Structures are given as C-alpha cells and as structure tokens.
Amino acid sequence: MKVCILHGPGAEKSVVQRTFKAVEAHKSEPWEADRDGPLDAITRRLKGTTLIVTLGGDGTFLAGGRLGAPRGIAVLGVNLGRLGFLTEIDSDGLETGLDRFFKGDYRVEERNVLQATLTREGKSIARSIGLNEAVINRSGDARMLRVEIDVGGQAVGVIDADGAMVATATGSTAYALASGGPILEPTLRDLVLVPLNPFALTVRPIVFPPGQDISLEVLRGPADLRIDGGRRGRAVQPGDILRCGSHPRRLKVVRFSPPESFYQRLGEKLGWGRPLVPLK
C-alpha cells in the first residue's frame, strides 16, 4: 500500500518523520509531497496510492482533497495549524490514528466536490475542482458587479453585488458562512449560492438541491475567479460564464469520530451555540 504524506509549509520535519515511521510499521510505502510543490510532479506519483495523509491546517486538507477526490483516494487530515475544522486528529494522535486506519477501525465520510468551468464566447478556458467554493469577486477598481444567475437552464435573476459564490456543504462553514450563508450538514450534496454584499437587501443566499448546475454570467466587470481561496485568481471578463455543479466523484474522508461529532465541532471550533453571556 502506498501512502502520500502531503505537508504544508509549516509542518515540522520531526512530524513528517513520525508519519513515515508509522506508515512503514504497517509494511506500507510512504512518499512525501510538498503542498506548494509542482502539481504535475505530485499527480504522477498518485497512481497506486491508497491514502493521502495531510499534515497542516485546513488549507493543506483542501489541497489533499483536490488531489484525492477525482482519483478515489481517501484523505486523513492531521491538524498542525490553528483551527483544523476539517481535519480529524491532532499530531499527538498521529500514530494511533494510522494504526486504526490500517486495522480498518474507521468510517468513510463522503463529501460533495465542486466542479467549476469558466467559458468565454462558448469555449471552455478554465476548469477546476474545489471542496469549499468558487468565488467571483470584483477586481481592481471595478464598480459593483452585475451577475446573471441561471439554474438548470432557467434564468433566476440578475444581482448587483461585490461578487457571488457557489459553495458546497463543506464550504458552508468557511467563506460562505462569513458572508451570511447557512450551515449545511457536511455530507449533503446541495449547493448554496451566496451573494457578496448585494445592493438589494432582499437578495439572500439560496440552497439548491443535488443535480442542479448553477451558472453565473458576468454582465458588468471585470472580476476575479478563485477556487477554495486560492492565492492566484483568474481574470473574468464581461460575458464570461462560470458553470458550477457537482463532480461525479465524492471525496472520501477518513473519520474515527461519529457523524454527530460535526455539531460538537461547530461549538468547539466555531463557537456555534455558545451563549455570549455565561449561563447562571
């Protein structure tokens, strides 16, 4: 069994070495990859890989998910960062977690993956996948964007806003939540459309059921497109259309905790349901 150890820039060498030893103890073959390294070099080595272990924060987990999801490779997140909302274990539980994985003492949580395609004059110019969201945001000195929304081939409306995003259930607790979107249970296949600072107060987020594609056409721009908060955006011109739907394959996340732990995590990590005034 081959195991990819994907680490972020802040991962200590000692933690990487511990992961190597834990994998080798189960007669498996570990190999190391830098999250910010050349993508082609990583993807070439993924053939035959059974598990991706991410060492870092949620950003490293997202990078591992984008690699693993389309190839059917499960991902185990080890939190070395601050929040670690998506990861499953901390570095202290690294050896125990890998031992449970190799013994088969875990469950697989499947999560929806976003597939986004940007078209210009009827031709596809960019395609990407994301676990959290695809965001079109005004760029430079641009005025407020005007975006036409189409769902399943039916025109929904036109909004004036700083931007708009299409998020998965996983992404509903990230940028979408900070922008006023609803929290979705993470295994749902729904997509949520969240306007960013809309001009009209009546323009609110909408949740769409599985199987429906959402198209955003920029009528007035220019704008930037970013997937999962990527450092480098892609320029979007007036007339460009972003089509978002669900990828045919879902991400397989290795979990040791029960499904209900998601709600406990909301309270512990995000403070949901915690009173501002202490209970007497």
Question: Can you tell me about this structure?
Answer:
With 280 residues, this protein is α+β, with helices and mostly antiparallel strands. The protein has two domains: 2-111 and 250-270, 3-Layer(aba) Sandwich (Rossmann fold), CATH 3.40.50; 114-246, Probable inorganic polyphosphate/atp-NAD kinase, domain 2 (Tumour Suppressor Smad4), CATH 2.60.200. The protein has helices at 13-24, 39-45, 58-68, 94-103, 175-178, 261-270, and strands spanning 2-7, 29-34, 49-56, 74-79, 89-90, 107-111, 114-120, 123-130, 133-138, 145-151, 154-161, 163-167, 191-196, 206-208, 214-220, 223-227, 234-236, 241-246, 251-255. The chain has a six-stranded antiparallel sheet. Helix 1 (13-24) links the parallel strand 1 (2-7) and strand 2. Helix 1 (13-24) runs parallel beside helix 4. The chain is globular and about 55 Å long. The termini are far apart. The model has no long low-confidence stretch (mean pLDDT 94).
Label this structure with key terms:
Rossmann fold; 280 residues; 19% helix; six-stranded antiparallel β-sheet; alpha+beta; Tumour Suppressor Smad4
Helix-strand blueprint:
Blueprint (H helix, E strand, L loop, with lengths): L1 E6 L5 H12 L4 E6 L4 H7 L3 E8 L1 H11 L5 E6 L9 E2 L3 H10 L3 E5 L2 E7 L2 E8 L2 E6 L6 E7 L2 E8 L1 E5 L7 H4 L12 E6 L9 E3 L5 E7 L2 E5 L6 E3 L4 E6 L4 E5 L5 H10 L10
Our Rg estimate from Cα atoms comes to 20 Å
CATH superfamily of the largest domain: Probable inorganic polyphosphate/atp-NAD kinase, domain 2
Order of helices and strands: EHEHEHEEHEEEEEEEHEEEEEEEH
Separate helix tally: 6
Strand content is 35-45%
The structural class is alpha+beta
- Please, how many domains? 2
Low-pLDDT ranges: none
Number of strands: 19
CATH architecture of the largest domain: Sandwich
